[in-house]
Write a structure and sequence with these properties.
The chain is an all-alpha fold. The chain has a single domain (20-192, 207-390), classed as MFS general substrate transporter like domains (Growth Hormone, Chain: A). It is built from 17 helices and no strands. The protein has helices at residues 9-15, 22-41, 45-51, 56-84, 86-105, 117-139, 145-160, 163-174, 176-190, 208-216, 221-226, 231-248, 251-278, 281-301, 305-337, 339-367, 370-385.
């Protein structure tokens, strides 16, 4: 019996009937390890900066500097991926990420590293994100992009369900340096699965101008406008964890909340992936983008621990409900426009948007006190979310 959304018994069959290519099988193993390492620290990184005494304005400037450098260095990462292959680029990014974690672990002894770390993070990202997106765009299952994105979310969130809780336990027991060292150790072995087979790159040269031609082309204008929506993602990843910490006042509780939300998100993602394949990415976006924007109203009103739990779960579920169809649509276009060129194009726009928004938030928190600053930031983030609808 089918529901009003069109789900039936074949829905559950399609979830497990995929036959990913070798490149994606290796990527899933890589993501399993990498996502666990990232889940250990992602929600704690901005909180760590805040507890170390850095103001909200300086934290925003940290990410503003990072995205500025990321845009400038991205051509070099793309050329590396074109010359040596996507998997080699991903593997090469892992020691840089390890170094980044070690810098964070040393921050208490050398505060000046606060301005070195975002630059190192940019070197990691130029090797990681263009290759990551291009790999999935080039080798994705054309008929099951939504379901494939669901599996990616299941691997990343599933591996990360326990990560925030473990991270919280490590922080309260041994401190943040121990957390960063563990994450570094896991990342160090994450790239091994990608080295099992020899990869042949079909692209030997990469023209940075080709990415900008995509950005400036009229036919890709909707993509460029839709990327403005990812400004709200900066708030979700950086300032929302700090807001939660200010309410619950516990690293362990923060980790527990994130773990519960990730569990719900991992399960929900399967249904969104199937919905994306059965409907269309744009139709799914039209349904969930307004609900994502509304999450910032709930965040602003969540002034108690119990309310925070509900707001975080709702926000993460809505983020997944938007990101799966959004990325599925991007990968579909990228396959025809040139996987690497298109990946670099939308990463450039994304980085510019996040960088500008981060610098704007640095000014906001410099002149506006935290309570009102958070409310203004949430209002702007909710408005930015509607730009997703342009895709």
């Amino acid at each position: 019996m089918s529901s009003s959304l069109g789900f039936s018994v074949p829905f559950f069959k399609s979830m497990f009937s995929m036959h990913p290519r070798r490149q994606l099988k290796e990527m899933y193993v890589f993501l399993l390890l990498f996502s666990f390492a990232a889940s250990l620290i992602t929600i704690f990184e901005p909180v760590y900066f805040y507890q170390a005494g850095f103001s909200l304005s300086l934290i925003a400037a940290y990410y503003g500097l990072h995205y500025t450098v990321y845009v400038l260095l991205m051509p070099f990462g793309a050329k590396f991926a074109a010359r040596f292959g996507y998997e080699r680029s991903l593997t090469a990014s892992t020691p840089i990420f390890v170094f980044y974690f070690l810098l964070l672990a040393s921050l208490a002894m050398m505060p000046v590293l606060f301005w070195v770390a975002p630059i190192v993070l940019a070197f990691f990202k130029i090797l990681y994100w263009p290759a990551y997106h291009a790999n999935f765009s080039a080798f994705a299952d054309v008929k099951n992009r939504g379901t494939e994105q669901s599996w990616i979310r299941m691997v990343t969130y599933g591996a990360g369900v326990i990560g925030p809780t473990i991270g919280g336990l490590l922080v309260i027991s041994f401190g943040f340096p121990a957390l960063f060292i563990l994450a570094a150790a896991v990342v160090a072995v994450a790239g091994i699965p990608l080295l099992r087979t020899k990869e042949r790159s079909s692209i030997k040269k990469f023209s940075y101008a080709s990415a900008w031609r995509i950005i400036l082309a009229k036919r890709h204008r909707r993509m460029v406008l839709s990327m403005i929506g990812w400004g709200e993602n900066l708030v979700h990843l950086v300032f929302w964890p700090i807001f939660i910490f200010l309410i619950v006042e516990s690293d362990l509780v923060l980790g527990l909340i994130a773990s519960l939300s990730m569990l719900a998100t991992a399960i929900w993602g399967f249904f969104i992936g199937e919905l994306t394949d059965r409907w269309s990415p744009r139709r799914v976006l039209r349904l969930f983008v307004p609900l994502t924007a509304a999450s910032y109203i709930f965040r602003a009103l969540s002034g108690a621990p119990l309310a925070i739990v509900g707001a975080d779960a709702y926000a993460r579920i809505m983020q997944t409900s938007v990101s799966i169809p959004f990325v599925a649509k991007l990968y579909g276009t990228g396959r025809s426009a040139g996987a690497l060129q298109y990946a670099v194009a939308f990463e450039i726009v994304l980085a510019i948007v996040k960088g500008l928004f981060a610098w704007a938030l640095a000014l906001l928190f410099l002149y506006v006190a935290a309570p009102m600053g958070f409310m203004i930031m949430f209002a702007v983030a909710g408005a930015l979310a509607f730009f997703y609808l342009f895709l």
